[in-house]
Design brief:
Keywords: Membrane, Transmembrane, Transmembrane helix. This is DUF4227 family protein. It comes from Bacillus inaquosorum KCTC 13429. This protein is an all-alpha fold. The protein is built from 2 helices and no strands. The longest helix is centred in the N-terminal third of the chain and has 36 residues. The protein is elongated and about 85 Å long.
């Protein structure tokens, strides 16, 4: 009877620890989500920002040439 009680208490300890750490992890993930939910990554840049991507309209050729270029260079 003593061994059964000790095994049951050990299993209960493991269950309580697992449940506690799971709840802690869950609430930590909620906190991180709320922290970054209001983080504005796509605000307009300030200062002397330069637009990096511009489409080149003077390029001759179509989608097939671009596809061949992709296969040859991987870009």
């Amino acid at each position: 009877m003593g061994r059964f009680l000790k095994t049951t208490l050990d299993a209960l300890k493991v269950f309580i620890l697992f449940t506690g750490f799971t709840a802690l992890f869950y609430y930590a993930m909620i906190w991180v989500n709320q922290e970054y939910e209001n983080y504005h990554r796509y605000d307009k840049p300030e200062g002397s920002a330069v637009k990096v991507v511009e489409m080149d309209q003077d390029e001759k050729g179509g989608w097939f040439d671009r596809l061949i270029f992709f296969y040859q260079n991987g870009e």
